[in-house]
Amino acid sequence: MKFTYKDKVEMYRLWKEEHYSSRRLAAQFQCNRTVATYIVKLIDIHGISVVQKKKNREYSAEFKEEAIRRVLIQHESIKQVSLSLAIPIKGTLSLWIKSYIENGYNVIERKRGCYGQKESAEDRIIRRADEEDTGASEAEHEAIDRERILKKIRRLNFGKRKTRAEEIAHAITELRRELKCSL
Asked: What is the pTM of this model?
């Protein structure tokens, strides 16, 4: 469950002033006891500002590697390291460690947002070559390309924003040139 800033402040107030136990906090906020304890300890160590929602926090590879090293090499507990580094979500460090081990003991920084997901022309050529090795026909490639164009049209029309006809036409023209196909 995601907690708002007000929930976290109230949780800390109840613990500090009303002397609620972690079990009682967990029952009131409908969460796991360890989550309630983690939030309270995090605020107690670093102050209330640590739980304020900031724009998506990004951690450097060096920061992640240092945290992982403390757990794997220095044998500190995940909870202790997370609290000392003011990581706002209890399971984040566990995910970093899992990813670290799966990626051959390398910290992989993934790109965030739509820019991290774009496929370059070279990647597309390699992907196509791999698909041809699997026996995909030219007709299947054209169907995939048409589907990409239609998906782009749907995305441009999605949400509250009114898309101008010129913008849609421009996007379709770009995709048709790039993919060398028509609808």
From this structure: 0.57
SS3 call for 63: helix
Of residues 35 and 160, more confidence is placed in 35
Q: How distant is the alpha carbon of residue 11 from its chain centre?
A: 26
Number of residues written out for the chain: 183
Domain ranges, ordered by start, for the chain: 5-51, 61-102, 119-179
Q: What is the pLDDT of residue 170?
A: 72
Q: Is the pLDDT of residue 39 over 60?
A: yes
Alpha-carbon distance of 109 to 163, in angstroms, equals 33
Distances (CA, A) of 143 to 21, 138, 150: 60, 9, 11
Which candidate, 144, 116, 101, places its Cα nearest to that of 56?
116
pLDDT value, residue 135: 60
Q: Which pLDDT does position 94 carry in this prediction? A: 92
Residue 44: closest CA among 18, 11, 66: 11
* Alpha carbon distance 75, 19 (integer Å): 32
